[in-house]
Amino acid sequence: MIRAGLPNITPKDHHNYVAFFLTLSCNLKCPYCINLHDHTIRANQVKHQTLDVGDWIRAANRLVLRADLPLTLQGGEPTLFSGFYRFVNDVKPEIKMDLMTNLMFDVDRFIKEVPVWRFTREAPYAAIRVSYHPDQNDINDLISKILKLQQAGFRVGLYGIEHPASEIRAHILEVQKRCQTMGLDFRLKEFLGEYDGAMYGTFKYDESVAAQTLKQCECRTTEIIVDPAGYVYKCHADLYNTRNPMAHILDAEFNEDSIDEFRDCSNYGTCNPCDVKVKTNRFQVFGHTSVEIRNIR
Questions:
Q1: Sorting pLDDT into bands at 50, 70 and 90, what band is 5?
Q2: CATH number for the domain including 93?
Q3: How far is the C-alpha of 275 from the C-alpha of 261, rounded, in Å?
Q4: Is the pTM above the cut of 0.85?
């Protein structure tokens, strides 16, 4: 099925993000998970097939990435992918990686099996980014694991959501202060989506999220995002709903020029908040949006 000698994929300067969703499985059940903002998505996630680790390695080895553009591993929880450790060891050494994780894994095994250089590069944020979810993972456990990883040479950042519920927000701010006094990098992310009848998030496009009426538009992305089966999508909403893939990551015809095409979309109004939020780019400069949308009608 998979052909050797696939041509390289070399993202352009304006391409901001490359992510492999190794799995959409997760060992947490956060009710506000951004992956599940559309209630149909959880059922669709079950349908995802998964590339085997050899195919993921071939896919990664197609990439020619700049020093400022890593390959980000995410999901779900990427360390749940059965071939995770082989993947991070066998991909060509030129590929630097970032990891988005809830840190609910054996850090002793991680330290033993993962080379520090794989997740080491110059950047304004840590290559290993840990999400803290109150009532789902324990902050004391996270802090202990982060300190152990840092002692082993890994750079780790901790992130919490600015949840609109006052008691959760107060707890997050208290935890942030505690971590900062310990010298740990703890940053806040904007809460995205609906809560208690109100919509939260700074979105570039009006009525793009949770709208009552669907519209047509044309859309293009700045990202290469690949689902567990290896399909490439123009947005997270399509990826989570397994709809309208642009290509497969192992298609010989897929290249960096494919990312710059505007594509028709009939689902404007159900955009995933991650795609249309105004946020920082990979250089931590605010004002970036993952997708460009035009001709909304």
A1: confident
A2: 3.20.20.70
A3: 16
A4: yes
